[in-house]
Backbone:
């Protein structure tokens, strides 16, 4: 056998530093121990940061979700192997980030207009952007599309179209689903925290049950997942969800919509609670064969809804992780990145959260949300459906009504009469 470069380097070090001992290579046990310690420390760091942001206010959670989707998009785009000849293609990466920016502009704009239309629609500068938001977003996307077609180069078509498709897949799987997580936060902190905590605890319970009595492999994509751990985690997640919901429902900070982004846990929020959080009377009628009288009990309907949330987090959301595992195996990478020491990339920790947040939004809007006319809805209807003269008449009519109800003084009516133009 010949002498390798590593041997020559080792001999050179011995000659230069004869009294210095060669560092011993780490054993597998030491490597695993170091990884475990790093992973544990960063787990507690993430948990502490998560709770600090949640109690600090909705705006901090929105900032975290924004950062997560940007980093996740970067990680997913990066795992695609770029051929060496294609690395020199101009504007490839720039187009990826342009489409990300355009998508975020559209999605964030939709949320801001929907939840804060009472602010946006009365601002002279923001009004044109709000009323034409979708057209502006579409034209921004079309500009990127035209630029992409113009940048196509012979000999690189397959790579460029692959990147185009890959970018749009990442935008859908990451950014679109993250958009619904942000909407959940604005609907009420409970709709963000509960789905996220159910996924996290289910993963923990699946690991504990798996190493305790797991025997049967669940799916080949994740060899360590077992049927016993899967079912055991489902039962424990339901119990956790039931208990956690009972705690969160007591605080308006969690159940009220984010009508003030400057609020936090100490200042709290005020609203009329959704009936789903209020105890209601239910009657249980035992089977006739038992000859037992019917029993009446009081429970909040949310305790029934949590059964669906916990079941989805346990039975469906893990397949988001399996999908991510298959994606990593396709590109022969262990992790999506190294954003979190000991844990891999952000995407490795969020793969199940995206689909869970999407489900939580759809379920909430379909079965729980109350659709009432808001101040923003009334303003939007008046601006878009009434002429300027009719809008002035609405102001006069509302003022007279408020004066009649004793909510404002007569001086307001006299002031408006002197400011507003007279009827024609």
Residues:
């Amino acid at each position: 056998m010949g002498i390798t470069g590593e041997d020559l380097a080792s001999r050179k070090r011995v000659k230069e530093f004869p009294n210095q001992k060669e560092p011993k290579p780490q054993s597998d046990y030491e490597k695993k121990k170091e990884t475990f310690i790093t992973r544990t420390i960063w787990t507690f760091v993430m948990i502490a940061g998560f709770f600090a942001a949640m109690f600090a206010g909705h705006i901090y959670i929105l900032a975290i979700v924004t950062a997560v989707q940007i980093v996740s998009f970067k990680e997913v785009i990066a795992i695609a192997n770029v051929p060496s000849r294609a690395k020199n293609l101009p504007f490839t990466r720039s187009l990826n980030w342009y489409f990300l920016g355009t998508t975020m502009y559209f999605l964030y704009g939709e949320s801001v207009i929907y939840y804060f239309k009472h602010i946006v629609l009365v601002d002279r500068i923001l009004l044109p952007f709000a009323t034409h938001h979708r057209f502006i977003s579409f034209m921004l996307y079309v500009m990127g599309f035209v630029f992409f077609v113009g940048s196509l180069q012979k000999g690189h078509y397959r790579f460029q179209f692959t990147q185009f498709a890959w970018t749009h897949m990442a935008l859908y799987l990451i950014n679109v689903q993250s958009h619904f997580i942000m909407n959940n936060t604005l609907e009420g902190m409970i709709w963000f925290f509960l789905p996220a905590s159910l996924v996290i605890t289910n993963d923990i319970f699946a690991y504990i049950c798996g190493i305790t009595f797991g025997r049967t492999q669940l799916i080949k994509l994740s060899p360590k997942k077992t049927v016993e751990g899967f079912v055991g985690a489902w039962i424990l997640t339901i119990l956790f969800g039931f208990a956690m919901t009972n705690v969160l429902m007591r605080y308006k900070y969690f159940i009220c919509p984010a009508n003030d982004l400057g609020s936090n846990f100490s200042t709290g929020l005020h609203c009329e609670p959704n009936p789903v959080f209020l105890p209601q009377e239910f009657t249980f009628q035992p089977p006739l064969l038992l000859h037992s009288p019917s029993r009446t009990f009081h429970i909040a309907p949310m305790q029934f809804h949590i059964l669906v949330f916990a079941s989805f987090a346990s039975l469906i959301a893990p397949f988001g992780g399996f999908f991510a595992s298959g994606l990593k195996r396709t590109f022969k990478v262990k992790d999506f990145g190294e954003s979190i020491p000991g844990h891999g990339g952000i995407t490795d920790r969020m793969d199940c959260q995206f689909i869970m947040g999407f489900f939580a939004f759809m379920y909430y809007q379909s079965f729980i949300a109350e659709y009432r006319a808001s101040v923003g809805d009334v303003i939007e209807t008046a601006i878009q459906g009434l002429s300027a003269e009719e809008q002035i008449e609405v102001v006069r009519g509302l003022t007279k009504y408020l004066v009649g109800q004793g909510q404002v003084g007569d001086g307001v009516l006299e002031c408006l009469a002197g400011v507003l133009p007279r009827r024609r």
Observations:
- The chain is about 65% helix and 5% strand.
